[in-house]
């Protein structure tokens, strides 16, 4: 990728990543569902952190709950089963694996693991089944509160209540990620009105510098 060397995001383990990823496929192939799934997980974790950090003493009834998740209705069995999200991401010098299982607006299970870049061993930070939480060695030294709101992700609870580097790093992807869905006929028409053939060179030059 020599032509993109100046644009690469370099990781501590020496791997370089382009700052742009393309998802393509036929109509009804699942592209929008992928973006919606990523945005759902991001919102489920980040929204409580933003709301409760800004107003930590809000009345219990005003506190946010996890967004409702509608399962795919492939058959009568799948409709009644939880929807499971599994996400791998990098933050700082670690790769994280986050799993969230949701049925309607209830959290069934949740888990967070991390691996130092370049290492082979993965460490469990926490695993949750319903309201029962098992902490890994790293968090066991930091987390003292046993009670939490079961309607919210445990990762959100940790980020709100514990200013620990491991927690803040793990939550940073959810707080910093932005998903834009340009699959909108209105937006397409607006762009067509704003841009013409004479702008194509400037637009291409703009993206080449990002």
Structure characterization notes:
The protein has 210 residues and is α+β, with helices and mostly antiparallel strands. The chain has seven helices and seven strands; from the N terminus they run E-E-H-H-E-E-E-E-E-H-H-H-H-H. It has a five-stranded antiparallel β-sheet with strand order 3-4-5-6-7. The protein has a two-stranded antiparallel sheet with strand order 1-2.
How does the helix and strand content classify structurally? Answer: alpha+beta
- Assign an overall shape: globular
Compute the average pLDDT.
Answer: 82
- Side by side, the strands of the main sheet go 3-4-5-6-7
Low-confidence parts = 56-62
Order of helices and strands: EEHHEEEEEHHHHH
Please report which band the strand proportion falls in: under 5%, 5-15%, 15-25%, 25-35%, 35-45% or over 45%: 15-25%
User: Largest sheet at a glance?
Assistant: 5 strands, antiparallel
In angstroms, what separates the terminal alpha carbons? 15 Å
How many E strands? 7
Proportion of helical residues = 25-40%
Number of helices: 7
Radius of gyration: 20 Å
Compute the number of structural domains.
Answer: 1
């Amino acid at each position: 990728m020599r032509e993109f060397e100046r644009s690469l995001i370099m990781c501590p383990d020496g791997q370089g990543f382009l700052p742009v990823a393309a998802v393509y496929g036929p109509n009804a192939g699942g592209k929008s569902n992928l973006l919606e799934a990523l945005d759902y997980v991001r919102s489920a974790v980040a929204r409580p952190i933003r709301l409760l950090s800004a107003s930590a003493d809000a009345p219990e009834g005003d506190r946010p709950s996890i967004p409702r998740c509608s399962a795919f209705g492939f058959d009568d069995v799948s409709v009644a089963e939880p929807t499971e999200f599994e996400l791998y991401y990098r933050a700082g010098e670690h790769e994280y694996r986050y799993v969230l299982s949701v049925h309607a607006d209830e959290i069934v299970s949740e888990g967070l693991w991390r691996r130092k870049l370049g290492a082979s061993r993965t460490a469990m930070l926490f695993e949750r089944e319903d309201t029962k939480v098992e902490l890994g060695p790293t968090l066991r030294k930091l987390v003292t509160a046993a009670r939490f709101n079961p309607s919210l992700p445990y990762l959100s609870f940790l980020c709100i209540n514990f200013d620990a580097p491991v927690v803040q790093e793990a939550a940073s992807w959810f707080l910093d990620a932005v998903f834009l869905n340009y699959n909108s006929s209105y937006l397409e028409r607006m762009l067509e009105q704003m841009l013409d053939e004479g702008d194509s060179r400037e637009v291409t030059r703009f993206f080449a510098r990002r």
